[in-house]
C-alpha cells in the first residue's frame, strides 16, 4: 500500500516538473486551452439550456433533460475544439516565423471559426451573434481610440439602445422568420402571449391554460 502511494507521489512530482518546463509551454497551453474551453462552454450553456428548455419546449422530463445535455455537450465540445485549434495554430505560426505578430491571431481564429463554428446550427448561430454584437462595440471604441472617428460629445448608448430595440421589434412584428428561433420564442412569450387570457388563472398564474375550458 505504501509503495503505491509513493509511486503516485513520484508520478505527481514528475508531472509538476514537466509543467514547469518552458520548452513545453506552448503545447501545454494548447492542452489547457482545450480543458478551459470545455469547462467554460458547459458552464455557459447548461444554465441557458435549462431555462430555455423548461420555458419554451414541450415534451417529457426525459426529453427535456436530453435536450439540455445535448446542447451543453455541443457548446462545450465546440469551444474546446476552437481553443485547441486557435492556440495550436498560434503556436505553429510563431514557431515558423520566429515571433508572434497580430495577423497570426486573426488567421488562426479565422481558420478555427471556419472549421469549428462553420456549421449553421442554433448553438453556433447564437455564439456568432453574441460575438458579433461585442465586435461592433469593440470596433466602435477602437475607432474612437485611434482617432478614426471623433469622440462623441454625448454618450451614444441611448441612441444605440433605441435603434436596436426599434429594429428588433419591427423585425419581430413584420419579418419574424428572420430572427433566431430562441429570440422568436422569447418575444412570442413577451409580446404575443401577453395578448391572450381567459380568466385569472392564465392572466396572473400561468401563461397559457392547459385545460379545455
UniProtKB/TrEMBL annotation:
Signal peptide: none annotated. It holds the Pfam family Tim17. It comes from the Eukaryota. Coiled coil: none annotated. One of its GO terms (cellular component) is peroxisomal membrane. This is PXMP4 protein.
Amino acid at each position: 500500500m505504501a509503495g503505491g502511494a509513493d509511486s503516485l507521489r513520484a508520478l505527481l512530482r514528475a508531472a509538476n516538473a514537466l509543467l514547469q518546463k518552458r520548452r513545453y509551454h506552448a503545447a501545454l497551453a494548447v492542452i489547457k486551452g482545450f480543458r478551459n474551453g470545455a469547462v467554460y462552454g458547459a458552464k455557459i450553456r447548461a444554465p441557458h439550456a435549462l431555462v430555455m428548455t423548461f420555458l419554451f419546449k414541450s415534451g417529457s422530463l426525459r426529453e427535456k433533460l436530453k435536450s439540455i445535455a445535448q446542447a451543453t455537450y455541443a457548446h462545450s465540445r465546440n469551444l474546446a475544439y476552437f481553443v485547441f485549434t486557435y492556440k495550436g495554430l498560434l503556436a505553429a505560426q510563431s514557431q515558423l516565423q520566429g515571433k508572434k505578430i497580430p495577423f497570426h491571431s486573426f488567421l488562426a481564429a479565422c481558420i478555427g471559426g471556419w472549421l469549428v463554428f462553420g456549421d449553421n446550427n442554433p448553438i453556433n448561430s447564437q455564439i456568432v451573434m453574441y460575438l458579433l454584437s461585442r465586435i461592433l462595440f469593440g470596433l466602435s471604441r477602437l475607432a474612437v481610440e485611434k482617432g478614426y472617428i471623433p469622440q462623441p460629445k454625448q454618450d451614444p448608448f441611448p441612441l444605440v439602445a433605441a435603434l436596436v430595440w426599434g429594429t428588433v421589434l419591427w423585425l419581430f412584428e413584420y419579418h419574424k422568420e428572420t430572427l433566431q428561433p430562441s429570440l422568436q420564442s422569447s418575444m412570442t412569450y413577451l409580446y404575443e402571449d401577453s395578448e391572450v387570457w381567459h380568466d385569472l388563472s392564465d392572466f396572473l398564474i400561468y401563461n397559457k391554460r392547459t385545460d379545455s375550458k
